Amino acid sequence: MMPYTYSLFSRLYIANVRRLATNVAAKEVQDINIAPFRIVDPCPVQHDESCLNRIYTVPPDITMLLKEHMPKELWKQASVFREFGILIRKPAVELISYLEQTDFTKPINKYVLYGRVGVGKSTTLMHLIHYGLTKQFFIIYLPWVCTWFRYARDAAVSPLNPEKLDIPTYGVRWLTFFKQLNHASLSQFDLKVSKEYTWSPKEHTTAGESLSALIEFGIERTKFACGVIDALVNELKVASTAGKCKTLIVIDGFNAFTSAHTLIRDDSHIRVPPDRISITSTFFNSVNYDWCNGAAILTVDKKANKERRESDYPTYLLGKKGFEQLDPFLPICVEPYSREEFKTIIEYYKDRKWIRDISPQGEKEMEMLCARIPADIWHFTKPL
């Protein structure tokens, strides 16, 4: 029995060693076979200049958090490609570098992304939101401001400020999105409300209640959703200043707040300006210099403001009111793709089978046709 037992264990040992060696070899081959245009590390904290011009894949759980408020065409691309790939570009790497070096005991720094329509400002925001989530910031993300002012059908006089109009349905959607996006931070930090809020003679949020309870109240009581958003932003500013957390303000199309009008009508069926909408003052105040332990990253775009479309520069797009609100801020230009970035995107599209059988001459023609603008590349490659 002994020789047989020894032989059996020997064979099992040898089989396990061979299996381990095979797995290691397979892993090495897999690592070697990673496409040169990709980067393995999905952690945006590690992204620096050595990662430029390469694609990283956003983890599926983060993609699912962002999908409902991701730009429409970007979500279409992620759905078709079955992954959310982001090209690591200089503006994002530059901003990550600044955030890593920030002294958060000082009043917040403000960064304004600008550039031509379709150059990828919103995609850069996605990269930075992923960074913020990785660093356990609370993310106050307001996607494309114009959407709030364009399609609202249930605008009503605010129960808290009769001079303002609320957009309660959008308020509930945003609070639900905020809750999902910041689920991990809400669970970890368990912040408490710093003061009492009176919503009606019978409804109050008392000091000491959890921030999660405040959010749930706004979701359940649609009428007060916009008021809860205002309270939530103020509470996060207070908690950040007290050193209890860090907060990242991210607003896409900030200059929509400085437009002369919206498509929202009051009871007299007259279109009202943005400053008559309650959320305008909420998010305008969110970028004041009266708090610390955070940062604000904003974009400006021609499409966000009908009155000013002759230039892409933030000073012009923001107007006097918007500029004075943000000043001083650091402008960061998002350019069309460089030639190296264009080549990376073409290789990525080939890898995802979005482009098939395109010749080198065809790539050159595509480069000239699109002027290396990301949105145009996506649009013109659809028939291919």
From TrEMBL:
Xref: InterPro entries: P-loop_NTPase, Ribosomal_mS29, Ribosomal_mS29_met
Per UniProt, subcellular location reads as: Mitochondrion
Recorded hits in Pfam families, A to Z, give: DAP3
Q: What start and end residues bound the annotated signal peptide?
A: none
Top-rank taxon, per record:
Eukaryota
Q: Which UniProt keywords apply?
A: Mitochondrion, Ribonucleoprotein, Ribosomal protein, Transit peptide
Q: Which family does it belong to?
A: Belongs to the mitochondrion-specific ribosomal protein mS29 family.
User: What is the name listed in the Swiss-Prot or TrEMBL entry for this protein?
Assistant: Small ribosomal subunit protein mS29
Species of origin: Xylocopa violacea
